[in-house]
Amino acid sequence: MDVKRLPVTLDSDDQAEVAVFSDPNRAESVILRAWAQQNHIAVRDNSESGIVRALLRAGAESLREKALEAGYAELAKDQADGLDEQRARRNRYVEQVDRAYGE
What we know:
Low-confidence stretches: none
Radius of gyration: 27 Å
Number of domains: 1
Order of helices and strands: HHH
Strand content: under 5%
Oligomer: single chain
Distance between the termini: 76 Å
Number of helices: 3
Largest sheet: none
Number of strands: 0
């Protein structure tokens, strides 16, 4: 596994978020640590770097899931549009046949 250290600047809002996930008495911390363990991410004690890494990975996973959901929604829309087009073609054909036999 390739490892790279990056300097990251955290503003006061970012630091407040990290503090929430660092507090072992908060539900957010318990949930993050459980998620990290399930995903084989080590968060030692109150290691800010481990917490930030877990938050980064959790955020990336969440956004990836959102992207998949958007893709599936687009696919469903395309399929629904395709069904509408098929119905319209079928209806035009039925009307043509009805006119042909109705004459």
